[in-house]
């Protein structure tokens, strides 16, 4: 059936009808008072979502561009940085650092395992000369469904005193309680196609006062991603370059929806749907790729035994028009990932699990009682 696609991936995520209608409006001028008023509201609501009084800047980029901007605006060539790497995106930030001539040291964990905060503590405590200028951590590692212990890692960074904490919060911002000011986070990057519930195209970077001090002496090359330009423009409720006007109008709509729902309800919804999904997978006797104590609220990775993950994904799309995400790099065809991020409802979880049961049976996997996955999810959702 056409036009019934259900996105159950970590991004792009489903878009509410109200935001789709906002996208369909005739564009307005980006140098008009009308657009400036929208920008003012959006900026205020972004600060609310980030739980910060500091700057939250919008760039015409994806999440990767937002993280890259968060790196290059506050560092200089040769600076020593620590990068947590336990998945595809942790690896990416190390590659970005190397591309810009930074002295990159990685702290690694096996894919599917969380980063060990003690390893960060050891490196930071040993740095008596205060040569480490930044620590980069992927909060929710989308490739594996692992939520890293950012709060503890950040405490070790704060004890160091000199280093900035730079956070990839692309699939945690808007899904998990991330109080930027309370935790003292310096740079937090995210992307519009995740918890913000709009299509790809906007990146966001929250910047602390400490980071702005580092900006003054940072020497890495930048122009379009120069956050100083965005800061000056944002203070005047405008933008340094032509923005994606309708995306921002749609963001204005979804941020209003999020404020109406409230932060506690948003975080509670993501936690509930994460738990329901994981309970369902256990009910189907399928192995979860990440342990319960480090599970991401955005994505659940599943490692099906004796069955190709991509066959499950293909049949889910063919039979039910439900899109699941696949594994990356060495996990390709080894895992599939169920997204429960952004504009996802309890009904979507139940529909996805029920469809998954049918697909598993059709592919010859019978190590479960039909209905067990749906029953396990329903029990959590009704709890």
TrEMBL record:
Annotated keywords: Aminotransferase, Pyridoxal phosphate, Transferase
Stored InterPro entries: Aminotrans_V_dom, Aminotrans_V_PyrdxlP_BS, PyrdxlP-dep_Trfase, PyrdxlP-dep_Trfase_major, PyrdxlP-dep_Trfase_small, SP_NH2Trfase/AEP_transaminase
Top-level taxon: Bacteria
SUPFAM superfamilies (UniProt xref): PLP-dependent transferases
Gene3D superfamilies documented for this protein: Aspartate Aminotransferase, domain 1, Type I PLP-dependent aspartate aminotransferase-like (Major domain)
GO molecular function: alanine-glyoxylate transaminase activity; L-serine-pyruvate transaminase activity
Sites bearing N6-(pyridoxal phosphate)lysine, chain numbering: 194
Alphabetized Pfam families for the sequence: Aminotran_5
Annotated substrate binding sites: 337
Chain ranges of the Aminotransferase class V domain: 28-329
Co-factor requirement: pyridoxal 5'-phosphate
PROSITE patterns documented for this protein: AA_TRANSFER_CLASS_5
GO biological process terms, semicolon-separated: glycine biosynthetic process, by transamination of glyoxylate
Tagged with keyword Transferase: yes
Family: Belongs to the class-V pyridoxal-phosphate-dependent aminotransferase family.
Protein name according to UniProt: Class V aminotransferase
Upper classification of the organism: Bacteria, Bacillati, Cyanobacteriota, Cyanophyceae, Nostocales
